[in-house]
Amino acid sequence: MTGIAHEARLLIDGVLTEAEGGATYDNVNPATEQVIGVAADASANDVEAAIAAARRAFDESDWSTNLELRVASIRQFHAGLLDHVDELTEISIAEIGATRMACSSIQVVEPLKFLPYYANLAESYEWRTNLGDADTLGGPATRWTEAEPVGVVAAITPWNVPTQINLAKIIPALAAGCTVILKAAPDTPWSALALGHVIAEHTDIPPGVINIITSSDNTIGELLTTDPRVDMISFTGSTPTGRRIMAAASENVTKVFLELGGKSAMVVLDDVEDLGMVAATAAFGTATVCGQGCALSTRILLPRSRYDEGIEAIAAMMAATPPADPSDPGTMLGPLINAAQRDKVEGYVRSALDEGARVVCGGKRPESMTAGYFYEPTLLADVTNDMKVAQEEIFGPVLVAIAYDDDDDAVRIANDSIFGLSGHVFSADDDRALAVARKIRTGTMSINGGVWYGADVPFGGYKQSGIGREMGQAGFDEYLETKAYAKPS
Ligand code: NAD
């Protein structure tokens, strides 16, 4: 039997099983460019089997109605995952290039807290709400509502924080009583199948309730978005893919829940006394997941009067976070996920120079590293908000600095984006910061460095950053339908 770290099988109908014809594809370590093993390469027939299993489990087992079983199973799953934190960490380092530091927080350790959170929430949830008696069109009636699971959920996820996103989708869906087909990103198969391995070996989750698919083919997920047996698509990924999924889902009017891209702004108001905290937050954000995070603030808005001072402080901080081996406990900045992503980042930096921006630091591959998809932390100055690097998601360790005139101008620039995911405001005065934050149209905001992330905090986007909320109670309600009842009273 293969171990959790090298799980090269799919999870379909409760069984860890090879892809059709034993098909596999290479899994590559982005820090070394070495093939580290193989993953199952699912075919259309494998996807078909997964959908059929999820549909059957929803329609024919008692999963959707047996709250006790669901809560107990999620607690078993949690215990199983806690036994494998070290392996999950090594997988994340090997296949994402995640830093060991990030694994002790958002990549591995923090997401495991979603399991007890949703087990407890499902247990205490008000599944039935009494609406009382009323004189209705048909006479006096007693009315109430009941929450029911949506049904079969297709969860399609990206590679940047896979354990976090996989769990943020499957756990509330399972707690709600849905059955799930999880389709992992091609670059991060083992992170997903490690969950499958633990489910198969450590839990009583019935066959078909959760199915996990990996494939080298980016578009095998399309089969999930057009199948009438799927009741809901829960997607995290880029905005262009989100648009395609929404269009595909319209065929069957399938419910969509979308967590998409971002280009969030860090607004620094002119009364900030110490720019050190701002610079540290900006440099840390640029290093986090090598800048490959949807919610990171990738535009910094500095008051024109303090622009040069801000640029100097941030560049100094960035110099302190050079790219390095992600498995080293002291490393903050690891590699990009693959060569294509590095090409994309290089293209964006070139476009910024063409449009008149200036590289303050970085802007190139580290000369000392001969292997791995590394890129230096990069600060671009003299950027205006109409430039490509200010409007599009780069998904690399690149921060763009834009000057503004007054608070209203900062708000205008922050909102001048198709995205609306997150952001920061820094000020010596919390109330002033909050007044600015309230005018910025995003799903989450940090005031003076406050951290909003947590199992109980809803996360999601305005505008083209998505539809719906993940995590928190809102991230549970996404997987429920409301049914209203009445009987004569
Ligand atoms: P992507 O959109 O390329 O792929 C995401 C997933 O969709 C992958 O599993 C992929 O195989 C699948 N896919 C691709 N085309 C498909 C199609 N036509 N039909 C169905 N599935 C399809 O995104 P990515 O490059 O893996 O991830 C990076 C993106 O994810 C960034 O834009 C980032 O902002 C976004 N993201 C958003 C959040 C959030 O919560 N808002 C979190 C993390 C990442």
Structure description:
There is one protein chain. By secondary structure, the protein is α/β, with parallel strands linked by helices. It folds into two domains: 3-260 and 466-488, Aldehyde Dehydrogenase, Chain A, domain 1; 264-454, 3-Layer(aba) Sandwich (Aldehyde Dehydrogenase, Chain A, domain 2). The chain is built from 16 helices and 22 strands. A hairpin with a 2-residue loop joins strand 5 (128-136) and strand 6 (139-149). The protein is globular and about 70 Å long. 55% of the residues are buried. The model has no long low-confidence stretch (mean pLDDT 97). Bound molecules: nicotinamide-adenine-dinucleotide (NAD). Nicotinamide-adenine-dinucleotide binds next to helix 8 and helix 9.
Helical element count?
A: 16
The third-level CATH topology of the largest domain is Aldehyde Dehydrogenase, Chain A, domain 1
Termini separation comes to 61 Å
Shape: globular
Q: What structural class should be given to the helix and strand makeup? A: alpha/beta
Kindly report the name of the CATH homologous superfamily of the largest domain: Aldehyde Dehydrogenase, Chain A, domain 1
The radius of gyration computed from the alpha-carbon positions, rounded to a whole number of angstroms, is: 23 Å
CATH architecture of the largest domain: 3-Layer(aba) Sandwich
Low-pLDDT runs: none
Q: How many β-strand runs?
A: 22
> How would you write the strand order of the largest sheet?
14-15-16-13-12-18-19
Q: How many domain units?
A: 2
- Report the sheet-strand fraction: 15-25%
Q: What's the multimeric state?
A: single chain
Helical content stands at: 25-40%
User: What small molecules accompany the polymer chains?
Assistant: nicotinamide-adenine-dinucleotide
The average pLDDT score comes to: 97
**Sheet bearing the most strands, described?**
7 strands, mixed
The first-level CATH class of the largest domain is given as: Alpha Beta
